[in-house]
Specification:
Length: 371
């Protein structure tokens, strides 16, 4: 690990050009931010079955929904979302019921974000071979009517960690959803450490990082999470990477108690939520979902998508930081673009495989793992 980090550090000389791309009840209460069109015959061709958390979670569900909504509006397709019963405590049977309801309502293709969808998707897909399924943050598992999209979150995490340290922050925090069992969140977090390590080595500084999945099992906001993060800020933490859907609300509430507290968002650009957000580690959820839906409706499923998984990253303009909206003052766009270009070309390859001990192997970042 030390050798690999050394290689990464050796190639990080920043100043140039390239730009960033530039979880069963059928839900009836539609959020104000997103209004579905009605269907004359009560049938909806495109369906989203949410991951845990709310639809408009300012993160993963919302970014996926925006892809479904954007494509459908642009192409005259009817669409609808379904939230499995029991919210954060939804079971496989709840997810199965939501998918079956979507099919009853006419779904030709179902988009389902989150790794927890696998068992339900497999069961329903086997029973409905003519319906297609898009497994976002998933994997291919041998069914011709299932395609998967997965992202190189370690790249966005790396960029966020690097940017934070180059901006001048040396006391960082990471709070992750999924209780440490979500691969995508884990990649975000481990990339965040790697990026902070690279920048710290370049600047010759030492970085402290609090790192925890303690209150993120359900990706939901909670008083316990808010209290934990407020304690971090009170203890000197300057910026927290909030990596877990609705958990963002608890981190924002905690940050609001401290004038200089900052946040890094996740999945989608969360800069509009608060001036506390200095940047977001994003991935191209809406863009990739729109792309797959287009391929399906163009009749290219068998050719391009059947039983395949796309692993998207910077080379596909699907990971990065949103430079047009960030609130960074010391880390410049030119520096970012140079670094992004090196990740995009493969010159820099943040490690994707998360070791059992995430605290080991770093010389300039001291990781305080809170369990």
């Amino acid at each position: 690990m030390k050798k690999l980090i050394g290689i990464i550090l050796a190639i990080l000389m920043i100043a140039g050009t390239v730009t960033l791309f530039a979880s069963c009840s059928n839900q009836t209460n539609k959020p104000e931010e997103s209004k579905e069109p009605t269907s004359e015959d009560g049938k909806y061709e495109v369906a989203l079955v949410t991951d845990v958390g709310q639809l408009m979670d300012k993160g993963f569900n919302q970014g996926t929904w925006e892809g479904v909504e954007g494509f459908s509006k642009a192409n005259g397709k009817t669409y609808k979302y379904y939230q499995p019963a029991n919210g954060a405590d939804a079971t496989d049977n709840d997810r199965i019921a939501a998918m079956k309801q979507a099919i009853t309502n006419g779904a030709k293709i179902i988009v389902a974000p989150g790794f927890l969808q696998q068992a339900a998707m497999e069961a329903v897909a086997k029973e409905n071979p003519d319906v297609k399924f898009v497994f976002v943050d998933g994997w291919a598992f041998g069914l011709k009517n299932v395609t998967a999209i997965v992202y190189k979150e370690q790249e966005s995490g790396f960029l966020a960690g690097y940017a934070a340290v180059m901006e001048g922050y040396t006391k960082l925090g990471f709070t992750g959803g999924g209780g440490g069992g979500n691969p995508a969140v884990n990649r975000f977090g481990y990339g965040f450490i790697q990026g902070a390590e690279a920048a710290a080595a370049e600047k010759g500084v030492e970085v402290e990082m609090k790192y925890s999945f303690k209150y993120g099992d359900t990706f939901s906001a909670s008083p316990e999470l808010q209290t934990q993060i407020a304690g971090w800020y009170a203890d000197g933490t300057e910026v927290v990477f909030a990596c877990g859907g609705s958990m963002f609300s608890s981190v924002l509430s905690a940050a609001s108690e401290y004038e200089n507290a900052k946040i890094i968002g996740v999945d989608v650009d969360q800069s509009g939520e608060s001036e506390k957000v200095i940047t977001s580690a994003v991935k191209g959820l809406s863009v990739s979902v729109e792309k797959v839906l287009g391929q399906f409706f163009d009749g290219k499923w068998d050719e391009l998508l059947a039983d395949k998984a796309q692993n998207l990253g910077a080379a596909d303009d699907s990971t990065g930081l949103p430079t047009e909206t960030w609130r960074l003052k010391n880390f410049t766009k030119a520096q970012y673009e140079e670094l992004y270009g090196k990740i995009k070309s493969g010159e820099i390859v943040p490690v994707a495989e998360v070791p059992e001990d995430v605290t080991a192997g770093f010389e300039h970042v001291k990781v305080d793992l809170e369990k």
